[in-house]
């Protein structure tokens, strides 16, 4: 995912602001990769605002050999590309993502480039607290020395501001979901087997055990609904969990979805559920909202801001299977409520998280950094 910036100028002769986005390399999956894909799709909108964006993909490593490749290959490429940028925008999570961007940010600073620290992790505060003293110092320096700090939600901004120490408050630039925003939810009719949709990493962090437990409660309350989970992870573990609750015929694993298959997954869903233990934003929940699907989520991180409790869906506490089941059962069993919440979800997504509004926040950030109004 790399497009080299040039010194292109506007017809008036004013040189564009050149921004180099640093994040996961081409073909990788996850929240940051999705955000970079959305930014790439909006290149023309940025160009219309006199901003030229380019992308630099880093590579994760689990072995010493891979780390050496990062040092010699990624760093060498970055030294070449950084000179073509006015601003270097680092998209950061925790652990390896943080350490890779930390090194590259020092290079950007030495090259006198303006730096943006953009936090995408809902667990970054725990990462910083549990790390050793050297890492805590590195976090404070990286976040505190950035020319601008950005979080995908107010929850992330609160974490960042603890490290800014007079360097200026962080700002929120939320995520968007262009493909979902432009989609329609056609009248497909009721699927043969109504289902609750989940999309994301099949991990403890996403509350998968609680979700399956809640499904058992919903079906014991007289409901007859499936759970379809889209995403990568330890499917064997969760299949065993479902079988232990006699739900092996109710829980389906769809794998990683893209294109029209992903669209239909959302379009036919009765409701969407994301019971995460922590979450910086919740792009999958936003996608569901754009499709007009009510969302049941946990009251954590960015999800607590994304879902309007009682209007576009329901919020419950994490790890509370009984509360999750009640919320899902209420929506699944009431078509009028489901339609009302779905419409409100779509309207909220378009109003607050549409691509035009999100691009405008990026543009405002960049113009302030280079002193243009």
Structural account:
- The chain has 373 residues and is α/β, with parallel strands linked by helices.
- It has two domains: 176 residues, Rossmann fold, CATH 3.40.50; 174 residues, Rossmann fold.
- It contains 16 helices and twelve strands.
- The strands form two sheets. The chain has a six-stranded parallel β-sheet, sandwiched between helices.
- Helix 7 links the parallel strand 5 and strand 6.
- The longest helix is centred in the C-terminal third of the chain and has 19 residues.
- The radius of gyration is 21 Å and the shape is globular.
- The two termini are 30 Å apart.
- The N terminus is likely disordered.
- This is Glycosyl transferase family 1.
- Keywords: Transferase.
- It holds the Pfam family Glycos_transf_1.
- It comes from Burkholderia latens.
- GO terms for molecular function: glycosyltransferase activity.
């Amino acid at each position: 995912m790399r497009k080299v910036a040039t010194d292109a100028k506007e017809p008036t002769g004013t040189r564009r602001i050149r921004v180099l986005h640093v994040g996961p390399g081409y073909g990788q999956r996850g929240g940051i990769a999705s955000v970079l894909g959305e930014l790439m799709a909006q290149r023309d909108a940025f160009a219309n605002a006199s901003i030229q964006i380019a992308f630099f993909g880093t590579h994760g490593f689990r072995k010493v050999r891979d780390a050496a490749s990062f040092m010699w290959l990624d760093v060498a490429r970055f030294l070449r590309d950084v000179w073509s940028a006015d601003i270097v925008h680092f998209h950061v999570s925790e652990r390896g993502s943080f350490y890779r961007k930390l090194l590259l940010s020092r290079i950007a600073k030495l090259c006198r480039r303006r730096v943006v620290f953009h936090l995408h992790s809902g667990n970054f505060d725990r990462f910083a607290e549990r790390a050793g003293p050297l890492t805590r110092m590195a976090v404070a320096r990286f976040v505190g020395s950035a020319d601008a700090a950005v979080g995908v939600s107010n929850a992330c901004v609160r974490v960042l501001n603890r490290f800014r120490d007079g360097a200026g408050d962080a700002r929120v630039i939320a995520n968007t979901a262009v493909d979902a925003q432009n989609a329609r939810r056609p009248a497909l009719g009721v699927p043969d087997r109504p289902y609750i949709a989940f999309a994301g990493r099949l991990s403890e962090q996403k509350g998968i055990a609680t979700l399956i437990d809640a499904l058992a409660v919903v079906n014991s309350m007289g409901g007859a609904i499936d759970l379809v989970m889209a995403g990568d992870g330890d499917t064997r573990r969760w299949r065993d969990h479902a079988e232990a609750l006699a739900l092996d015929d109710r829980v389906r694993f769809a794998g990683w979805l893209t294109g029209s298959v992903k669209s239909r997954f959302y379009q036919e869903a009765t409701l969407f559920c994301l019971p995460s233990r922590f979450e910086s934003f919740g792009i999958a929940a936003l996608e569901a909202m754009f499709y007009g699907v009510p969302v049941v989520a946990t009251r954590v991180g960015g999800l607590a801001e994304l879902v309007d409790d009682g209007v576009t869906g329901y919020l419950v506490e994490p790890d509370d299977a009984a509360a999750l089941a009640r919320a899902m059962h209420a929506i699944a069993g009431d078509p009028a409520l489901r339609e009302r919440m779905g419409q409100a979800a779509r309207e909220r997504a378009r109003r607050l998280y549409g691509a035009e509004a999100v691009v405008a926040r990026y543009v405002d950030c960049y113009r302030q950094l280079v002193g243009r109004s």
